[in-house]
Write a structure and sequence with these properties.
- The chain is of the alpha+beta class and about 425 residues long.
- The chain contains 13 helices and eight strands.
- It has a six-stranded mixed sheet with strand order 2-3-1-6-7-8, sandwiched between helices. Strands 4-5 form a two-stranded antiparallel ribbon.
- The longest helix has about 35 residues, at about 190-225.
């Protein structure tokens, strides 16, 4: 029996190491915090399995863990730290809304179990702490996994949660039998159901791999659809989002399109360097995204050109948003050769109905944008219904006078 038990435990650890390698690869490729949670879970699984295996082998040899204090403490440290890492990693992987509280609770429980192992409780306090660690690890995973997640995470999370729940019940029942002396009253000896233990762990690992794969797919798709510098949608992502929205929203939903162009951006690159230009673009994108609702779309369509689509919004709302963006952009500056240069933006607005008309609205908004440029920049130009250009609505007297040329920038778009 001892040889079969040792072989099964080695198999469990080997599976854990293979699982760890897969999660490390996935995390390294994605470089995303939630995928780092999968790696943390995998590291925790290996540590937990090593610690639990040492306790099981000592129990099989009829040795009290306290009689081998060095081995017992190493095993307890590995299992408690591994249990906390598994719960913490699962919460990170699934982006649990209370993942910070979950992490604090998991690591706090680990410290408490280590302290419990040092107390003179019974003949083998280290084993008692180990038994509680097994049950608490599974209970923590159950609490995280059975919260209820949206597809595609729901099914693998439920299956993993069910496997963790069965493991929790088995570990508790086995511990109670061992400590009360009712050996084999409910469960046979562990070496007789160790393969069930392995099967449940493999089910749990398979579900975690599915969860990590789904998360990685979301991360990679999101990156392929967004601009790396500004984190706005790129053209491909913008078109995909428009198509998805058109399928969900009524055909007569009011839509406002804002076409935005940073004034004299080429001179920022020429005078201050591309690094300063990139930094400014990132800050400008933050201002733009902060000025619209989460349900609106923001995309970078060119070097310094952006577009925002306000869904279920009237023209007046678009003008208010444009005014807020103008004011916010005026507070941005670029540090160049010890001098801080102020920058502005020109905005063209077009409004209509239906997301299917966005292409036409973008053309009208772009023509209105040229009207804003002609009006002196740092202003908004609104295209009326069916108009190809709109009268420039200057929101800055300095823009009407063209005072931004006083810093020596050329008159470009």
């Amino acid at each position: 029996m001892a040889a079969a038990l040792a072989h099964s435990l080695i198999a469990d650890i080997a599976v854990g190491i293979a699982f760890l390698g897969l999660m490390l690869t996935l995390s390294a490729v994605s470089r995303h915090p939630s995928l780092g949670g999968a790696t943390r879970f995998a590291v925790g699984h290996v540590a937990f399995s090593l610690g639990a295996s040492l306790f099981i082998l000592m129990l099989d040899a009829d040795l009290a863990a306290s009689s081998r204090p060095l081995v017992g403490w190493v095993a307890l440290l590995a299992s408690t730290a591994g249990a906390a890492a598994m719960v913490d990693g699962m919460a990170r992987l699934l982006e649990h809304p209370q993942r910070i509280a979950v992490a604090r609770g998991a690591w706090g429980a680990a410290l408490g179990l280590l302290a419990l192992g040092a107390l003179p409780l019974g003949s083998d306090p280290l084993r008692l702490a180990s038994d509680l660690t097994n049950a608490m690890a599974m209970a923590g995973l159950v609490a995280v996994l059975l919260r209820g997640y949206a597809p595609p995470y729901r099914v693998p999370a439920l299956v993993a949660g069910a496997a963790s729940l069965v493991l929790c019940i088995l570990y508790l029942a086995g511990s109670i039998q061992g400590w009360t002396g009712a050996i084999n009253a409910v469960l046979p000896a562990y070496e007789r159901w160790v393969w069930l233990d392995l099967a449940l762990w493999n089910t749990l690992n398979l579900c975690v791999m599915m969860l990590a794969s789904f998360r990685a797919l979301v991360v990679f798709v999101r990156r392929s659809r967004t601009d790396a510098l500004t984190h706005c949608l790129n053209r491909s992502g913008f078109e995909d989002e428009l198509q998805a929205l058109s399928l969900r929203l009524p055909s007569d939903v009011p839509v406002v399109v804002l076409a935005l162009d940073i004034d004299h951006f080429k001179d920022i690159n020429d005078r201050c360097g591309h690094a300063a230009g990139d930094a400014y673009l990132a800050r400008f994108a933050q201002v733009l995204q902060g000025g619209v609702r989460q349900s609106d779309l923001v995309a970078r369509t060119g070097g310094e050109e952006f577009v925002a689509v306000l869904v279920d919004a009237q023209q007046e709302a678009g003008e208010r948003v444009a005014g807020k963006i103008l004011d916010a952009v005026r507070s941005l500056d670029v540090e160049c050769e010890g001098e801080r240069l102020r920058t502005t933006v020109s905005i063209g607005i077009a409004s209509g109905f239906g997301l299917s008309a966005v292409d036409a609205l973008m053309r009208r908004a772009d023509r209105a944008l040229y009207g804003a440029k002609a009006a002196g920049r740092d202003c908004v130009s609104t295209a009326g219904p069916g108009e190809t250009t709109g009268a420039g609505m200057a929101l800055s007297a300095s823009a009407r006078r063209g005072d931004d040329a006083s810093i020596g920038w050329a008159s470009d778009r």
